[in-house]
Amino acid sequence: MKADFYTEVYNIVREIPEGCVVTYGQLAKLARRPQCSRMVGQAMFNVPKELNLPCHRVVNSQGRLAPNWAEQRGLLEKEGITFKKNGCVDLKKHIWEDILPII
DNA sequence: GTTGTGACTAGTG
DNA sequence: ACACTAGCCACAA
Questions:
Q1: How far apart are CA A64 and CA A58, in angstroms?
Q2: Please, which positions of strand C sit below 7 A from a protein CB?
Q3: pTM for the complete prediction?
Q4: Considering chain A, what is the average pLDDT of its residues?
Q5: How many domains in chain A?
Q6: Does the pLDDT value for residue A102 go beyond 50?
Q7: Closest nucleotide relative to residue A61's CA, C1' based
Q8: Helix (H) or strand (E) holding A96
Q9: Domain range holding A13?
């Protein structure tokens, strides 16, 4: 069911600390669907803004940001995220590795 | 049931 | 760095 997976993703995204980022793959793994990284992206696009999730802290494995979303860069900069020269997030510094062993 | 789509990932050139 | 491919999954039409 999408609702359950989405809920898991939202719940995790909500826990992302300030100044940190997380990849779709990690998020998918934490949501107990390691292969569904694409669904994480869909979940982020469909996320109700009312939930006030820090979806701007979710990036892909390369540290690339969501396409056609100029705001994300500014939001991350405000959070204290640093970018490389090419504009990608410095994953090594800000990647969120706090694995929560649900189950 | 099949097809097209995507805010993905890893690999290759 | 970029472009492309193949694998992957769930959803919408």
A1: 9
A2: 1-2, 7-11
A3: 0.91
A4: 89
A5: 1
A6: no
A7: B9
A8: none
A9: 1-91
